[in-house]
C-alpha cells in the first residue's frame, strides 16, 4: 500500500496548552536518557520511549532538539535508556531539571556503570538499555532518535515509575494486579462483546 503525502496545513488548529492537557491523560513510563562519555555526559527525564522492533531489537525516543542531551546523542552516536523503578523519583526529578543541576552534576547520588557504547547506565533501574543511534528524524521542535539495542541490564524490581496528570505515580505489579482484580469486569460478561 502506498501512502500519498498530503499537504498539511501550517496553521495550528490546536493550541499547545490544549495538546499538552490532552497528553496528560496518557500514562507514560518514566525513563532517564543518558548521553555522552567520560565527563562530557548529561541526561534527561522522558516518557517518550517505545519499542520499535524486536528483530532486530530497536527502540525510539523523542528528544527536544534544544535539550542538552541532543548534541551529545548526535556527536557520540549512542544513548542509554534507564527505565526507572518506583523508588527512583529523586533521579527522575533531578534529570528533569529540579534543583537546577546540569550535565555531570545530575549523576551524583546514584550508582552508574559504563555501557558497551560508553554511555552511563543506572544501576538499579528496572532495565538499562544501551543503544547505538541508527537514525535521527528531525521534525518540528523534536527529533525521533532510533536506537539499535546493544546491551540490556535488568533488575528484579517490579514497581515502575510512571507519569500521569502532571505527577509521578508508582505502578506495582503485585499490588495493582490485586486492585484491578477487585474492580474488574467479570470474565463471563465479556463473552457477549
TrEMBL record:
Q: Where is the Flavin reductase like domain?
A: 23-170
EC numbers listed for it are 1.-.-.-
For this UniProt record, the keywords arranged alphabetically read as follows: Oxidoreductase
A Pfam family hit? Flavin_Reduct
TM ranges are none
Name of the protein: Flavin reductase family protein
Q: Which InterPro entries match?
A: Flavin_Rdtase-like_dom (IPR002563), NADH-dep_flavin_reductase (IPR050268), Split_barrel_FMN-bd (IPR012349)
Q: Which family does it belong to?
A: Belongs to the non-flavoprotein flavin reductase family.
Q: Which GO terms describe its molecular function?
A: FMN binding; riboflavin reductase (NADPH) activity
Amino acid at each position: 500500500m502506498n501512502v500519498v503525502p498530503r499537504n498539511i496545513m501550517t496553521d495550528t488548529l490546536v493550541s499547545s496548552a490544549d495538546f499538552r492537557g490532552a497528553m496528560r491523560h496518557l500514562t507514560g513510563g518514566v525513563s532517564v536518557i543518558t548521553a555522552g562519555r567520560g565527563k562530557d555526559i548529561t541526561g534527561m527525564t522522558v516518557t517518550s520511549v517505545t519499542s520499535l522492533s524486536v528483530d532486530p531489537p530497536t527502540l525510539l525516543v523523542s528528544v527536544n532538539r534544544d535539550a542538552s542531551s541532543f548534541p551529545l546523542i548526535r556527536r557520540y552516536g549512542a544513548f542509554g535508556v534507564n527505565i526507572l523503578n518506583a523508588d527512583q523519583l529523586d533521579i527522575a526529578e533531578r534529570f528533569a531539571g529540579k534543583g537546577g543541576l546540569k550535565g555531570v552534576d545530575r549523576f551524583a547520588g546514584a550508582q552508574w556503570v559504563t555501557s558497551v557504547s560508553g554511555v552511563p547506565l543506572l544501576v538499579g533501574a528496572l532495565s538499562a538499555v544501551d543503544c547505538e543511534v541508527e537514525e535521527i528524524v528531525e521534525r518540528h521542535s523534536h527529533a525521533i532518535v532510533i536506537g539499535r539495542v546493544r546491551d540490556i541490564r535488568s533488575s528484579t524490581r517490579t514497581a515502575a515509575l510512571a507519569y500521569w496528570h502532571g505527577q509521578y505515580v508508582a505502578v506495582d505489579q503485585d499490588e495493582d494486579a490485586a486492585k484491578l482484580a477487585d474492580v474488574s469486569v467479570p470474565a463471563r460478561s465479556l463473552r457477549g462483546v
